[in-house]
Design brief:
Blueprint lengths: L6 E6 L9 H11 L5 E7 L6 H6 L2 E7 L9 E4 L1 H6 L8 H11 L6 E7 L12 H22 L1
Parallel strand pairs: 1-2, 1-3, 3-5
Antiparallel strand pairs: 4-5
Length: about 150
């Protein structure tokens, strides 16, 4: 159960698919020293397993690899509604995660921001590509900034 007023940071991705694991990698790093006012989970691809947190969270930051045609490592912050109108953003995990949110919070959805990171390669492998490794400090900084904005 998440504490009242905290932001849930959910790292999505498949740890076996190189850059698709960026959300999981970042969440794992954040769990060592979570930003003030946040609760961090390594969700991976198991969104439905987090039903209790989805039910309680007032605000959520989702971190995921999101293809938008930009340079690998590019960070884009957007709202879930932006995906309905733009076919450029494609993530293998959005359907499962956002279906879980709709299922558990049909009448009172939480405020959600998506921090999408442009992948270079989504293929079998355990290591991030160099552009995504290089983007990690910027991603971490952006998450702290975003959490601060959402707490206001």
């Amino acid at each position: 159960m998440i504490q009242h007023g905290k932001i849930w940071i959910a790292g999505l991705g498949n740890a076996l698919m190189r850059d698709d694991s960026i959300g999981v990698v970042i969440a794992t790093m954040l769990m060592e020293n979570p930003p003030l006012g946040t609760y961090v989970s390594e969700v991976g691809t198991a969104s439905m397993s987090f039903a209790d947190i989805i039910s309680d969270a007032e605000k959520i930051i989702v971190i995921d690899a999101v293809k938008s045609g930009k340079s690998p490592g590019t960070i884009t912050v957007f709202n879930p509604g932006d995906m309905q109108f733009t076919r450029d953003y494609i993530s293998a995990h959005n359907l499962g995660f956002f279906d879980a949110v709709r299922l558990f919070r049909p009448d009172n959805p939480p405020a959600i921001k998506i921090l999408g990171v442009e992948p270079e390669k989504i293929e079998y492998g355990l290591e991030l590509t160099e552009p995504l490794k290089a983007a990690i400090p910027k991603i971490m900084k952006k998450i702290v900034e975003l959490a601060g904005q959402m707490l206001q």
